[in-house]
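Protocol step 4 of 5: obtain the predicted structure for the target chain.
Materials: sequence only (see below). No template structures provided, no constraints applied. The aim of this step is simply to have a reference model before the mutagenesis design in step 5. Sequence pasted as it appears in the construct record:
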Amino acid sequence: MALIGRLVVIFIGFIAACVVGGMIVVGALLFPEFSDLGAGPVDQGTIDILLGFGFIFVSGFALVPAAVIVAVTEALYVRSALAYAVGGGVVGLACYLGLVPFHPDTFQFEGIVRRHLEIMTGAGIVAGVVYWLIAGRNAGAWREPPPPLRRPPPLPSQSRPDAR
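Step 4 output (structure tokens):
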């Protein structure tokens, strides 16, 4: 039963991390457009659609690498915030490099945009910390046996009902 509860917490942590990561990616990519003073107000429906697509993009590409990180940290009882931040950065980096063409003849990625690489890695780091806040702090706790109950201390001799 503890494993099922842990899987639910992991799922909720992953969804929250993907929402935050998607918000960072969309916000950072749209920031140059928002900084233009002549742009006027932004339609809220458009922002909602972009955030939805950002969530779908981040969660779709990050599922497999994040599942590997979660499995390793759960198996090894890793509960460090730094480990989840580094893992999130690696997942963000892997998501970005998965979209860039790679030429096996020269062993090079072609068309890497440094700003986009930094955005994806930064979003992964923040998403890793969000996941740690929700689920990572108790990694592997479902395997620990509950602590044994301690016997209550004995009652003082004056508190017994038959000792008058």
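Step 4 remarks: Strands lie at 102-103, 108-109. The two ends are 49 Å apart (CA to CA).
Proceed to step 5.
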